[in-house]
Amino acid sequence: MEDKLLIEGGTRLNGRICISGSKNASLPLLAASLLTEDKCILKGVPHLLDTCNMMKMLSGLGAQVSYQDGQVTIQAREVQESGQLYQYARKMRASFLLLGPLLMRTGEACLPLPGGCAIGNRPVDLHLKGLTALGAEFSVENGYIKASAKNLIGNEVSLDYRSVGATENIMMVAAAARGGTTITNAAAEPEIVDLGNLLNKMGARVTGAGTSCIRIEGAPDLCGAIHTVIPDRIEAGTYLIAAAATGGQVRLQQVVPSHLQLVIEKLRQAGVPIEDDRGELVVYPAEELCPLQITTGPYPGFPTDLQPQLAALLTTAAGESTITETVFENRFLYTEYLQRMGSQISVNGSAARIQGVKSLLPAQVKATDLRAGAALVIAALKTPGKTEISGLYHLDRGYEKLEEKLASLGAHIRRVSDRAVNL
Ligand code: UD1
Hints:
Elements: E1 3-9, E2 14-18, H1 23-32, E3 39-43, H2 49-60, E4 64-68, E5 71-75, H3 84-89, H4 99-106, E6 108-112, H5 125-133, E7 137-141, E8 144-148, E9 156-158, H6 164-176, E10 180-184, H7 190-201, E11 205-207, E12 213-217, E13 225-228, H8 233-246, E14 249-253, H9 261-269, E15 274-277, E16 280-283, E17 293-295, H10 307-314, E18 320-324, H11 335-340, E19 344-348, E20 351-355, E21 364-366, H12 370-381, E22 385-390, H13 392-398, H14 402-408, E23 412-417, H15 418-422
Helix pairs in contact: 1-2, 1-7, 4-6, 5-6, 6-7, 8-10, 8-12, 10-12, 12-13
Uridine-diphosphate-N-acetylglucosamine binds at residues 24, 27, 93-94, 122-127, 161, 163-166, 191, 304-305, 327-328.
């Protein structure tokens, strides 16, 4: 029986919540723990489907993995590929982050071409190009990437696009390879900086992480490390937008405001007062919600992972907004469901036009991917009446304790099984 979220909207969110550790930082950090035989301890790892699947994949590869209260202890004395990997790897694009560490530890890797959110054709050519420059060889057979490497040696890598995952895979291999690597046109996301910090603790020398040029001096004998994951800027941004959408007053704790600089700037431009109170963010009700023009882009651009949530907010802005998506080609699937709730959105290629309406209507809607699910939750929270959201699998991939956190802010939200909804 599929679970659904029932949200009785129209209530202002009020109160304070703590932001969890970053999903997108945790996944490469977990993968990087395979680079050493020593024990790695990661603190603040959120309990999510994606992080649990990554931990299961590490166990399947022979690592000893334990999780308690956000703390993961991993020790990969030996690494051996087992068929178990495939069942999880297919579900999650981030499984491809295991490619570099696996190659490094075993000299070979075989991974299914990755799955994940249905937000477009997401190739892995840049991962392969980068790792090829470091000495790996690849072939594609029946939907699997087979990789081998006898000797991985540092090199110059120039990426055609600032891919987050490709930058991370190359950094992990370069950190354990002989010699120095320079990545130009590298991704500069805070999650890249976090990975660089862990690799430095493990004995590599990473400089420039967070800029478009990263230099890595490899250390063939990486050691264990203890590291705390950065807060999840996408979760924080989602709650900022949810609070703004309901006209509430919410304080976010355990955030890094600088990671959300452009998001905060854009929300302020939309008329939403946001205060940085000694490192905590406080959102206040907007007098009037103004329309916005937004174009997504790699960091420090507007995050594509907050684009659907922002669209949900703008459905009731006073005027016409436009959103241009430049990162993924298929990231407007959610608009069909926002239309079902009465919003006026038209999509033309990579741009969506949103004509603000006074109020949305409750409906039965479905999360088509992780952030699409978050957008529907926001739309439901601000809409009087009962909205029913299915496709919760996606939300569970990326939002820790979603119902608990929203309920603590006063939202009327509960998870029910399909059967209970029909009673
Ligand atoms: C990461 C995030 C994801 C976020 C995205 C962009 C994780 C686990 N996921 O995904 O939430 O939406 O960054 O901020 O951190 N591309 C290629 N070839 C490649 C690699 C990527 O063409 O080899 C393209 C993709 O198809 C996509 C774009 O580049 O259109 C961005 O992808 P990338 O930056 O690699 O995102 P991910 O690392 O997959």
